[in-house]
Amino acid sequence: MARDTTTNTPDGGAAPKKGRIRQIREVYSMTRKEDPKLPLVLAAWGVGALVVFVGLGFLLGSPVFYGIFGIPVAVLAMMIVFGRRAQRAAYASIKGQPGAAASVLDTLRRGWDVTPGVRFNRQQDMIHRVLGRPGIILVGEGNPNRLKTLFTEERRHLTRLFGPDVPLVAEDIIAGDEEGMVPLGRLNRTVMRLKPAAGKSYLRPAQVLAFQNRLKAVGPNMPIPKGPMPRNGKMPRGQIR
Fold first, then answer.
1. Are 126 and 203 in contact (CB under 8 A)?
2. How far apart are CA 228 and CA 232, in angstroms?
3. Distance separating alpha carbons of residues 156 and 140, to the nearest angstrom
4. How many Å apart are CA 196 and CA 239, to the nearest integer?
5. Which keywords does the record carry (predicted)?
6. Collapsed DSSP state (helix, strand, coil) of residue 15
7. In this structure, what is the dihedral angle of CA atoms 154, 219, 176, 32, given to the nearest 10 degrees?
8. Model pLDDT for residues 14-64, shown as the tens digit of each residue
9. Which of 38, 72, 78 is nearest to 53 (CA)?
């Protein structure tokens, strides 16, 4: 799914991209709001990694060399921990909001096509469609009982569209924290590990593109905004099922 990352300025030109340091600062600020212990955790990992290398240097008779070598390793350890906690904080900030699963799925790597909100109802339960090499995967968020109807409707729609050879993955996924659901933090990993339905094989890249073009040719998607929707957001009239 192509993304437009260009922001137009009042004079019609393209706004300059944010610097890497500024981006890191903004991510750190956002993460710290959700994770107040972030500075202490990062410091502990950095100091811990450095102490290990200095201690190893004393054992081998070269503490200065190993201490210098340990500095980039300590920085790397801090960056890895920071990245993981930043991702966790991002998931926590959208947790429980309608459209949160679509936001997470939209970060799937190249080769996956995500169509958010292909089915939804007045209670803001919704189904997202993911197309990849395993086939077509349906991901729901909301009340499991109400989602059953939406899953059934979308499966019937896809079967009518592609016939008996529709590459639907057998398992439907529901994003959430209740038993039997997939947490946001594991959603993409779970989707990428799914296998084709029994008797089906993995799609070739050309087949994925062909199915993607055919799905787009059916008609425009339902007018649902990208990303999490506000809790008091209203569904577009005339498109509610």
1. no
2. 12
3. 16
4. 31
5. Membrane, Transmembrane, Transmembrane helix
6. coil
7. 170
8. 444 557 788 788 788 878 887 888 899 999 999 999 999 999 988 888 888
9. 72
